[in-house]
Every structure is written in structure tokens, then in C-alpha cells.
Amino acid sequence: MRIRKAVIPAAGLGTRFLPVTKAVPKELLPIVDVPTIQLVIEEAVAAGIEEIVLVTGRGKGAIEDHFDHAFELERTLADRGKTEMVEELRRLARLVRLVSVRQKEPLGLGHAVLCARAAIGNEPFAVLLGDDLYDAVRPAIGQLADVTRETGLGAIAVIEVAPGQEHRYGVIAGESLPGGRVRVRQMVEKPAPGTAPSRLAVVGRYVLPPEIWPILAATRPGKGGEIQLTDALAELARTHGLIATTIDGERHDAGDQLGWLRANLAWALKRPELRDGVRALCDEMSARAGSSD
Ligand code: UTP
């Protein structure tokens, strides 16, 4: 079955990026000059997603504006002969059908996804987190959709994290299957140091069956007092089955400062007009750091 709809939860407070996130949604922080959420939506569109359900909260209106027409801006740019940029802005406004739902309080990622229930309905759907970026030839979410098509089960993306880093993630364990896949038997949100069942950490791409809805609705607050998506996924794994898989491509965690800076460098290096300048800048900065050691 085709995956037509995707949920993008964007109602979190973005506290790790304060003070900028006081007035600017975290999802609009730029990777060079493109908002992170635009890269995520372009990934979804490239995988054939037709409708995005954006879960927003207070102060997030600028995200919707970004994907809307901006007639005055377009006219001013057209008057100045900037036709390429006008075309780019129009492409953006036509990129995808965007529906917004509101999460009135940031009660957790599981709760944010549940807010999209009526807009998604009774079909399998994708979930993409705006602070996880994938640089991949085949869109990451499309790779998960392929797993769901082949197995008939929900699929989640995992990465192997460095030893000692497990406590920052939801961690899975289970039976290894061919092709680097795992049938999930166990899931723990942010395990205490030394207690993780493996080094396979859940990252922000999921394809879920509609059976997740009643499970999410019944999920009580867990770690940190938040309604955790991980807890609902653990129940889905028990009752219906769930596959975890690594993704072909490079993942960037744009949700913390270093990861966001790294993503900026990686995307800048992909731009022919910036590549040489960025390389020179990196050389200059590391020479300067070396001389001040
Ligand atoms: P994060 O924990 O990374 O985002 O949640 P956050 O809470 O905004 O950031 P910090 O930790 O305070 O810096 C992952 C995604 O889930 C969304 C966030 O917007 C983010 O994209 N989210 C989280 C919600 O939509 N609602 C919530 O209640 C929690």
C-alpha cells in the first residue's frame, strides 16, 4: 500500500536552542539558507507523500507562512528581475498539501502524533521529525515505506550509536533479520547508563500502521512526564510486530548545536558556489584553533 500522508510534529518548545527559539520556531532554523523543515518536507515529497499534517503549537505560525504564497514579495522580486527566486518561492508554495493541527500543550511526542489522528485516518502513515536530517540518495522515509510494503509491518529507523551514548535515545533490541533489519522485541526510552539492551537508537523517521492510534490514545505519561512515542511503539511491537532498520544515507542530528553546525557544513559543501569558500574557511579556522592550543 502507498504511504500518502505524513505527520511532522513541530509543537515542541525547542529549549536546547534558546534564546533563538523564543520567537523563531526551531523547525525554521536554517541549514545554510533553507529551513530544516523544508529539507524534511522535500524528503517526504521525493518519497511520494502527498499530504503533510503539521502539528503546531503557540508561536509556530511562521512555519505555515513559509509554505504559503507571498504575493507582495513575489511581485517585488519580479519587478527587480529576480525571476529565479520568484520561481523558487512559487515552487515552495506548491510543494505539498499542508494541513495544520494544534497541540495545545507540549505533552510529548506521542501526544503530538496523536493530535494528527483525525487528519490521517485509517491508513498507514509516515512520521518525520524536523530536527533529524537525512542526506540520502533514496529518501530515508521512502526506504522505510519499502520495508512496510515488503513486511506489512510498521518500520522505524535506527542508527548504531557510539558506546556510552545510548542514554540519549530510545533504544531497541530484538531478532536480527537479513538486510540489517531487526524485529523489535524490546524498546527503552533513554535507558540509564549501562542498562541499554543494544546500541541501536531510534531516530526521527517512522512508518506506522493505523493500529498505533488506539495504542497512542491509551499511552500514559512516561519518562519525563511526557506521553512518549517510544512507549506506544513498544506496545505496537508486542501486539502487531515492528521492524527497525538502518537507512542508507547520512543522518544529521540538527537538534543540538554541534549537529546543526555539522549539517550546515555538510549542506554548504554540496553547493558548488559555496564549496571552495567553505573549505578555505574550515582550513583557516582549524589553523587558528591549532595555533591557539
Ligand atoms: P524534541 O524533544 O527534539 O524537541 O522533540 P523539543 O522539545 O522542541 O526540543 P528541546 O528538547 O526542548 O530542545 C522532537 C520533535 O517532536 C516535537 C518537537 O517539535 C520536535 O520536532 N514535539 C515534541 C512536539 O511536537 N510536541 C511535544 O510535546 C514534544
Care to describe what's here?
Strands 8-11-9-10-12 form a five-stranded mixed beta barrel. 38% of the residues lie in helices and 24% in strands. The longest helix has 20 residues, at 272-291. It folds into two domains: 5-255, Spore Coat Polysaccharide Biosynthesis Protein SpsA, Chain A (Alpha-Beta Complex), CATH 3.90.550; 256-293, no CATH class. The chain has helices at residues 36-46, 61-66, 71-79, 83-94, 109-114, 117-120, 140-151, 212-218, 229-239, 257-269, 272-291; strands at residues 5-9, 30-31, 34-35, 51-56, 97-102, 125-128, 132-135, 154-160, 170-177, 181-189, 200-208, 242-245, 250-253. The chain is globular and about 60 Å long. It has 293 residues and is an alpha/beta fold. Uridine 5'-triphosphate (UTP) is lined by residues 9-16, 26, 55, 103, 106-109, 111-112, 129-131, 255.
Q: Give the SSE order as H and E letters.
A: EEEHEHHHEHHEEHEEEEHHEEHH
What are the distinct ligands in this entry?
uridine 5'-triphosphate
| CATH first level of the largest domain | Alpha Beta
The radius of gyration is 20 Å
- End-to-end Cα distance, whole Å, is 57 Å
Shape: globular
Low-confidence stretches: none
Main sheet properties? 5 strands, mixed, barrel
Question: Structural class, judged by helices and strands?
Answer: alpha/beta
Q: Share of helix among residues? A: 25-40%
Q: How many helices in DSSP terms?
A: 11
Q: For the record, what is the CATH homologous superfamily label of the largest domain?
A: Spore Coat Polysaccharide Biosynthesis Protein SpsA, Chain A
Counting structural domains, the number is 2
Mean pLDDT: 94
**Total count of strands:** 13
Q: Give the strand content.
A: 15-25%
CATH architecture of the largest domain: Alpha-Beta Complex
